[in-house]
Amino acid sequence: MSKKQFKTESKKLLDLMINSIYTNREIFLRELISNASDALDKRHFLSLTDSAYTSSNPLSIQLEVDRDARTLSIEDNGIGMNAEELEKNLGTIAHSGTSEFRQQLENSKEVDIIGQFGVGFYSAFMVADSITVESRKVGEDAYRWHSDGQSGYTIEPGERQAVGTKITLKLREDTDEVRYSEYLDKYSIEQLVRKYSDYIRYPIQMMVEKSVPKEGSDDEHETIETLKTLNTMVPLWRRNKKDIKDEDYNSFYKSQFYDYEDPLEVIHYSLEGNVSYKALLYIPSRIPYNYYSRDYEAGLQLYSKGVFIMDRCKELLPDYFHFVKGLVDSDDVSLNISREMLQKDSQLQELGKSVTKRVKSALVNMLIKEREKYEKFYKNFGYSLKYGCYQDYGMHKDELQDLLLFYSSNEDKYVTLKEYRERMKDGQKDIYYATGSSVEQIRKLPAIEKLLDKGYEVLFMTDDIDEFVIMMMREYDGKSFQNAQQADTEVETEEEKQAKEELVKNNEDLLKAMGKALEGRVREVRISSRLKSHPVCLVAASDGISLDMEKYLSKMPEGNAAPKATKILEINPDHDIFKVLQKVEKDAPEKVDEYADLLYQQALLIEGFNIEDPVEFSNRICDLMKQASGE
Ligand code: ADP
What we know:
- By secondary structure, the protein is of the alpha+beta class.
- Helix content is about 35%, strand content about 20%.
- The chain folds into 4 domains: about 5-230, Heat Shock Protein 90 (2-Layer Sandwich); about 235-370, Ribosomal Protein S5, domain 2, CATH 3.30.230; about 375-485, Rossmann fold, CATH 3.40.50.11260; about 495-540 and about 560-630, Heat shock protein 90, C-terminal domain (Four Helix Bundle (Hemerythrin (Met), subunit A)).
- Helix 16 packs across helix 19.
- The longest helix is centred in the middle third of the chain and has 24 residues, at about 345-370.
- The radius of gyration is 34 Å and the shape is elongated.
- The relative contact order is 0.06.
- Bound molecules: adenosine-5'-diphosphate (ADP).
- Adenosine-5'-diphosphate binds near residues 90 and 118.
């Protein structure tokens, strides 16, 4: 028998778990019971099509305590593991989330995230000096895995006769801080099972002492040993809503769906009719660590009449609701449905439609009645909803548009499109929006200065995806979206318009000269009606892409070949710089080129573009400083 070392990653993780101070060690039992329950599910599932897997004893989980030996064991008659599986499953932590897990562990010292990372088994080392796993699969030999969690592990032939797995923990000695003996106390164990594992659908049993009347005597009692089922086994979602406490919902969520925070929202209902089913759905209160990566596995658990069929059934919810966790228990779905059949199954499609509708109405409800909560939700998963609007050529936009929130310039908070629409000013044609990297940055954009000054509400869009969404939606409730940084957003009165025409006429030569100086870089230099305190700004012509879209596209691979916005330089006629320009044009027309160029570069900077030649630009500023000081 040779001893094998844990893989480096596993070893580090073990050290971390064992040597840190945890408050919540007790969850190890939940993890081991949940593994046992999974193993029973797997065996049950195979037995549906292969009688070799049928067990002569009912599938169950047995707990056993030996006070003298300081051991606690958890035994199941489930699928079992052979030597290779013991090696693969318990010797290494192959899971891709391991390093993230370690990081979180180091940061938060929060042990309740263990299950999420597929390292639940290891949590047993928080309470055990050593662990022995004896296991046998149907038609194979038995094996024994043993480890002290430090120096490595051994795998050798075992003696176990029954199919299934027995995990024996040798509990640590008590210390001043921790009473590990607690896990030898049957009453404590019973409490833990009730707390964390009550819903497990297989009986979790333990021999307990019970006092019964002594035979042939009226008042004498004797203590006998009897096998007690510790869990009620009624799945939570099949219980009456009014008998369920928030705490029950939350602890079920945390143990089943691997989160350490309570969910933001619980959606529990039962439907009878065309499709009959019960659903227990959760909206997490934080983003799963891998939510926006390929690793994230979406989907709901699928049960049929209380019996588990499949994990992560994706067909029940559209992509944009993939943040929803939970399960659906249908009376109609057939038990041995395969993954391939699922996609075509019309019953399942009906089911999916119904579940999707309920999720949406739960969100609408939250938006109306619990705005703050909704905003919290939106912060985490709003991106998914926006993506849903954009995806599939905008097919779902009508479904989702009223769930979107955007930051409002006037309200200083997130608002819905409906709210915006309802308070649009008289005569306001379009829904105005502006894009940028942050609310603060957008608010300072010269191009929307006057619009804001005149009290128009502008939606600030800070996500890369926002503009794509808007382009896909095109309009909301009969009103078009208008990019406030684009050329057509002048909100001027008749008088203002006339005054501007006058100005344009009087400064025709200046504007032309500047336009010529910037030829090829801007389409036009013109008098602005959108600026208030800034001298210049850039806007994009309405017949092309926006400035932010140009920035976005240039960041993509092949970005150099991406289309560019057609730019227009606007100058503020009320700004002192305008007077300077007029004077330069009159007194030193040879300088117009240089001034136009400087203002253009400044406008690029304000918009967050790179300027063409930063060194040259900075030299010129220095020259101006020298001139100004008469050097
Ligand atoms: P997870 O359960 O999240 O995958 P664990 O570290 O808890 O991670 O377990 C690793 C693997 O070991 C499980 O995925 C399963 O394949 C196997 N395993 C653990 N306990 C049992 C058991 N009682 N019976 C059969 N297989 C088990």
